[in-house]
C-alpha cells in the first residue's frame, strides 16, 4: 500500500516574494537539491528539464517550502501533475507533512535564455515577445512547443474545434475571424491555442503571435495605466500583433476597463485583418458581466465548442502521452484510466504521470493492480463514477428485481443473488470499505458484504452465465 497524500497544499501563485533570511533559503536549497536529485532519474528527461530544472527554492519556513518559477503556466502544470510526487519525496526527507507554495518570480535580465524550456527539434522555436517588449511585471506566457496539432488526439468530441483551429492556423485573419472556442476545464482549449500559434509560426516565422491569458492581459493593462505607458501597451497588442491568442476570456467578465480596452484592441486588429482567437469556458451569451457589444463581436466569426472526449479518445490520448513520455503503459491500465477518468483530459494525463512516477519511485511494475491502488482515493473523491445508488439501480434492472429488494432483507434466491452482485460490483467499482457498503445497502453488517464478495468471486468461476452478467454490468457501469 502506498501512503496517502493528505498533505495540506498551499499552492497559490502570488506576486513578488518577501525577502527571506539566509538560513531559510539555505534549508530550502538543501531540501530542493536532494529532491531534484532523486526525481531526476525518475521522470522523463523532457519533463524534468522543462518543469523541474527551472524551479528555484526560495525558503523553507516551518513546514512550508516556497518555490519559484518564472512561468505561471509551468507552475500550474507542476501543481496539476507532479505535486503528489514532489510532496511524497519532501515528506520522506523531512519525516513530516509539508506544504509547497509556488510563487511567480520575475526573470532577471539575461536569464531568459537559460530558463527557456528545451525545444524538441521537430517543433518550431517557441516565441515570446522580445524582452524589451514585455513590460516589467508582465506575465506574458510563452508558446509551448509541445502543444501542437500533432500531439492533439482528434475524436468526435473535438473534431469540429480542431478543424476550425487548423483553418485559422493555415490562414490567419482570413478563415474565421474571430474564432471563439469554448468548452469545459481541461478539454484542450489551451492546447489548441498553442497549436495554432506553433503552426502559424512554422508557416511564417516572422508572424507576430501574441499569446496570453486574459488575466495577464488585465495585469498588463493595470501596469501600463500605472506607469503611464498606454502607447506601448497599445502598440504591443494592436500594431505588433498578427495573431492575438487570448485564453480564458471569461476572466474579463465584470472588468469594465479591461473589456473596454480589449474592445478597442479587437476592433483595431479586426479592421487590420489580424487574427483574433479567444477561448472561454462558456458561450459568449453565458458569460456574466460581459458587454453586449463584445458578445456581438464574437458572433462575427465562428463559435466552436469542444466536448469531453469519448472513451476511445481518452484511451488514445493516454497512449499518445505514454509514448511521448516513454512510459510503458499496458492496454488494460490505459483502459482502466480511460474508463474511470471521464470528464477532464488534464486529470487523465495527471493520473498517468502520477502513476508512472509512483511505479518508478517504488520500483513496482505499472500494472492494473497498481493503478487501482494508487488511484483509488482519487477516484472516490472525484465521484467520477457511478455511486452506490446507481449501481443498485442498474443491477436491479439487469437482474429483474426491485432496487428496494436489494436494500431489503428478503432471502429469495434471485433477490439474494442480485444483492450479492450489487455488493460485489460496488466494492469493485467504488473501492468503498465493507462497513460503508453495508450501510448503503440498507444497514447490513460488513460481514454480509465480505461474504457477498467471496460468493460472487467463487460463482463467477463456476457459472459462465453469471460471469457474463457480471462482466457486462461492470462494463456498463464503467463506461
Ligand atoms: P483547457 O485549456 O481546456 O482547460 P488544456 O488545453 O490545458 O485544457 O488541456 C489539458 C491537458 O490535456 C493538456 O496537457 C493537453 O495537452 C491535454 N489534452 C487535452 N485534450 C487533448 C487531446 N485531444 N489530445 C491530447 N492531449 C489533450
Ligand atoms: Mg486553458
Number of domains: 4
Q: Taking strands numbered 1, 2, ... along the chain, how are they ordered across the largest sheet?
A: 6-7-8-5-9
The structure class reads alpha/beta
**Low-pLDDT windows of residues:** 1-19, 108-141
| Helix content range | 40-55%
- Beginning-to-end CA distance, first to last residue: 27 Å
Ligand types: adenosine-5'-diphosphate, magnesium ion
Question: Could you characterize the architecture of this molecule?
Answer:
The chain is an alpha/beta fold and 479 residues long. It has helices at residues 22-40, 45-52, 72-94, 112-115, 159-170, 189-203, 214-226, 230-239, 256-271, 292-298, 311-324, 331-340, 345-362, 368-382, 388-398, 403-407, 413-430, 434-440, 446-462, 464-478, and strands at residues 13-14, 56-61, 64-69, 99-104, 179-183, 209-213, 243-247, 275-280, 302-306. The protein has four domains: 2-105, GMP Synthetase, Chain A, domain 3 (2-Layer Sandwich); 131-306, P-loop containing nucleotide triphosphate hydrolases (Rossmann fold), CATH 3.40.50.300; 311-374, Helicase, Ruva Protein, domain 3 (Orthogonal Bundle), CATH 1.10.8.60; 388-478, DnaA protein, C-terminal DNA-binding domain (Chromosomal Replication Initiator Protein Dnaa, Chain: A). Magnesium ion (MG) binds at residues 189-190, 247-248.
Amino acid at each position: 500500500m502506498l501512503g496517502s497524500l493528505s498533505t495540506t497544499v498551499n499552492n497559490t501563485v502570488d506576486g513578488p516574494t518577501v525577502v527571506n533570511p539566509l538560513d531559510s533559503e539555505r534549508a530550502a536549497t538543501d531540501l530542493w537539491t536532494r529532491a531534484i536529485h532523486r526525481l531526476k532519474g525518475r521522470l522523463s528527461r523532457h519533463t524534468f528539464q522543462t518543469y523541474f530544472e527551472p524551479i528555484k527554492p526560495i525558503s523553507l519556513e516551518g513546514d512550508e517550502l516556497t518555490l519559484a518559477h518564472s512561468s505561471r503556466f509551468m507552475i500550474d502544470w507542476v501543481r496539476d501533475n507532479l505535486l503528489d510526487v514532489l510532496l511524497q519525496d519532501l515528506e520522506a526527507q523531512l519525516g513530516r507533512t509539508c506544504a509547497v507554495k509556488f510563487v511567480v518570480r520575475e526573470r532577471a535580465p539575461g536569464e531568459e535564455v537559460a530558463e527557456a524550456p528545451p525545444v524538441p527539434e521537430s517543433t518550431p522555436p517557441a516565441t515570446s515577445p522580445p524582452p524589451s517588449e514585455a513590460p516589467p511585471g508582465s506575465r506574458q506566457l510563452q508558446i509551448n512547443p509541445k502543444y501542437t496539432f500533432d500531439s492533439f488526439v482528434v475524436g468526435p468530441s473535438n473534431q469540429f474545434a480542431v478543424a476550425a483551429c487548423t483553418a485559422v492556423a493555415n490562414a490567419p485573419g482570413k478563415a474565421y475571424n474571430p474564432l471563439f472556442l469554448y468548452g469545459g476545464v481541461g478539454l484542450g482549449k489551451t492546447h489548441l491555442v498553442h497549436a495554432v500559434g506553433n503552426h502559424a509560426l512554422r508557416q511564417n516565422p516572422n508572424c507576430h503571435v501574441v499569446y496570453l491569458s486574459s488575466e495577464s492581459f488585465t495585469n498588463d493593462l493595470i501596469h501600463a495605466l500605472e506607469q503611464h505607458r498606454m502607447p506601448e501597451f497599445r502598440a504591443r497588442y494592436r500594431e505588433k500583433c498578427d495573431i492575438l491568442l487570448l485564453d480564458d476570456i471569461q476572466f474579463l467578465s465584470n472588468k469594465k476597463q479591461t473589456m473596454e480596452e480589449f474592445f478597442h484592441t479587437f476592433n483595431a486588429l479586426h479592421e487590420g485583418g489580424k487574427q483574433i482567437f479567444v477561448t472561454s469556458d462558456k458561450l459568449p451569451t453565458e458569460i456574466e458581466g460581459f458587454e453586449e457589444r463584445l458578445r456581438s463581436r464574437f458572433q462575427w466569426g465562428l463559435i466552436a465548442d469542444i466536448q469531453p472526449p469519448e472513451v476511445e479518445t481518452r484511451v488514445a490520448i493516454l497512449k499518445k502521452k505514454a509514448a511521448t513520455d516513454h512510459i510503458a503503459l499496458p492496454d488494460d491500465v490505459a483502459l482502466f484510466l480511460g474508463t474511470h477518468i471521464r470528464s477532464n483530459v488534464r486529470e487523465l494525463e495527471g493520473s498517468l504521470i502520477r502513476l508512472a512516477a509512483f511505479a518508478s519511485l517504488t520500483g513496482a511494475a505499472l500494472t492494473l493492480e497498481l493503478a487501482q491502488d494508487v488511484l483509488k482515493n482519487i477516484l472516490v473523491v472525484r465521484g467520477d463514477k457511478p455511486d452506490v445508488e446507481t449501481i443498485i439501480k442498474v443491477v436491479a434492472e439487469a437482474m429483474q428485481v426491485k432496487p428496494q429488494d436489494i436494500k431489503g432483507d428478503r432471502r429469495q434466491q434471485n433477490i439474494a443473488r442480485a444483492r450479492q452482485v450489487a455488493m460485489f460490483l460496488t466494492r469493485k467499482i467504488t473501492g468503498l470499505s465493507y462497513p460503508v457498503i453495508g450501510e448503503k445497502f440498507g444497514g447490513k453488517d460488513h460481514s454480509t458484504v465480505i461474504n457477498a464478495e467471496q460468493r460472487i468471486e467463487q460463482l463467477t468461476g463456476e457459472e459462465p452465465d453469471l460471469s457474463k452478467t457480471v462482466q457486462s454490468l461492470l462494463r456498463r457501469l464503467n463506461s
